[in-house]
Amino acid sequence: MRALFVGLCTLDVITLVDHVPAPNEKLTARTQTVAAGGPATGAAATFAHLGGEAVLLTAFGGHPLAGAIDADLAALGVDVINLTADSPEPPAVSTILVTAATGDRAVASTNAASGASVSPPGDLSVLVGDADVVLVDAHHPALAVPAARLARAAGVPTLLDAGSWRPATPTLLPYVDVAVCSADFHPPGTTTPAEALAFLHDAGVRWTAVTRGASPILRPDGQIPVPAVTPVVDTLGAGDVLHGALAHHLATHITTRLTPPSFDAALAFAATVASRTCGSFGTREWMRA
């Protein structure tokens, strides 16, 4: 199976600390790691790890720092299309502090600002047509919207990773088949996950869910349990992994139209994989276990 992932790619510098430093405080980290990050990127890495063919359509420049992203994703078997490889601009760098005692993370990043003017490749329709699933994260709307539109026209399921409400989200929703959102996803006029699900339904998205960390995944007609993890070491990237695992399950098992039971089964599988990541530090160690 094959999936196209369209969206953000960053260089994540992940540091394990005893506590988030106070103003002007210096502290010594327990450990540190570096990996390619971003919602679409984390999902693509997961899809490839689970045995699928993952194609990542993104933009992260041709600065020397981009080499670290290329090396990480090549080792995972992700086929990367970097549309700004000829640019001297550096990739977005996410600085991430993970608190050792809780696994909570604090993140600072420029996201996709440096790649805002990127244009779709000429073979986008081929990339979409060759995919069993197309995932978009709305960070590169000039890529995400055309990809989602082409997927809808070709009958390829489209999955939206909605970590938060973004400017491109309203334009994407008419072409989205499955939307799995975080509890931080708040469409205009909504404050609760239930209201967000209702908003998506009214926007025409048929299959929806809201993840809430360790709490059950919320569906319009029920909940999906999330396996417990003890101890929780690091929650970074768990949502990205969930989307990659969901895309893999959909590409592998859904040969006809989705049904409520089959969607719930896909979410349960994705939650199990995502929970596994929380027991180790960083976004790659769980793949080596």
Automatic annotation (TrEMBL):
Molecular function per GO: kinase activity
Any Pfam family hit: PfkB
UniProt-listed SUPFAM superfamilies: Ribokinase-like
The keyword Transferase belongs to this UniProt entry's keyword annotation: yes
Organism: Actinacidiphila glaucinigra
Ranges of residues in domain Carbohydrate kinase PfkB: 4-285
KW Kinase (keyword) present: yes
Protein name per its UniProtKB record: Sugar or nucleoside kinase, ribokinase family
Keywords from the UniProt entry: Kinase, Transferase
